[in-house]
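Submission sheet (multi-component)
Chains listed below:
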Amino acid sequence: MNEKIAALKKEFPALGGRFEGRRLVYLDSACTVLKLRCAADEQRRHMLELGGCGGKRSSHALAAAMEENFYAARSRVASFMGAGSPEEIIFTAGVTDAVNLLANSFPFSPKRNEVILSPVEHNAVFLPFERLASAGKIKLRVIPLKNLKPDLEAYRKMLGPKTALVCFTHASNIFGGRTDIAAAADLAHAAGAYLFADDAQYAPTHGGGGAIYGADASAFSGHKLGAPYATGALYVKRELLGKLRPWRVGGGTVADVTLAGGRYKVKYLGNYQAFEAGVQNCSGAAGLAAAIARLEKCGFENIRAHVSGLVDDALKSLAGIKGVRVLGERADLLEGSLISIVPLKKGFSVPDFNLYLNHQLKGRFIAVRTGRHCADLACLASGYRETIRISFFAYNTPEDTAIFISALKQYLSLLR
Ligand SMILES: Cc1ncc(COP(=O)(O)O)c(C=O)c1O
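Outcome: structure written.
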């Protein structure tokens, strides 16, 4: 293990956790990454040593210190996401919050009201647009699935003068691998549409996100980076940001309110300020910035190489097991951080296997994720109703995989 990775590994206290006396083997980082000590420390310090109100409301010295700290976090997130400026960063509670905001603020028009989704979008991306489509406000189209990836040729043909927005997951949370956001964005732009990239699974092990590849908007979730829960950000490039109509409105968003002829006229503030209504999660943002700084200190090139190596190692081990199938192609999976497998052997029950991993192993339990992974579009398109997903982060080792493989073999040996 690279020494920078080894040093980073020491900073996740939950790794040594025991539950009901059994040791945790954590292979569920795609769901959430265990939390970094520095992120928790910084959030705590921020609450106890500052504890005032950021967001340019009050103008005393404590509020100024808060705002300075908050803007520093915004700048850190902007450079992490590849944004042109901190003004393009809207703090959110994660990707779900970001997409709800984007979908409901987006300037759809009768002439351009179509949204195209990749077939592997998480429900966090699918459902906000599905809801608008059900209400008759937009038309939703889903790209067909080809070899468990979006069919790019079909996507090209779906684009047209009515396409307003296209959404692509940068790395699928069910089939793994990675999406070519640059190619998808080029095609969207040629049709005059905008592209949103969901970096939830990409940002934690690659660093950065869709903006670097030409996405007009992108989002990530802090908890998947070891940062506090309910933190994250939506990047929107300045030109598009100016066209969005604030969806959640309230305190801290308004430049002026006037009353003329019995009607109120509200002038909203510019850029991100119009989209962060109410008191923001400043301490969460401070924790998020600390997490990003720590991962950048380790180097995302090191994190990526380590995680890719773990995927490679797991694929080699799984190749020798007859009772299950690995979904996806090796070369693509190496670019991601997770592997989904489905059972082949008669009698293999995914929920039972999950119970087995949790309750039947001596002295330890293995946390993996089983089920549909909130990826209902992908399940419908592929026909796989459930998978067993193992996912990796910087703190995992080949021993974790070996423990899982051994448990899988034992479970298979119990089936007749
Ligand atoms: C690809 C993808 N997009 C979006 C989300 C939603 O993220 P959050 O629950 O942090 O809002 C997830 C969470 O698992 C995800 O994997």
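Remark: Residues 94-96, 122, 124, 169, 173, 198, 200-201, 221, 223 surround pyridoxal-5'-phosphate (CB under 6 Å).
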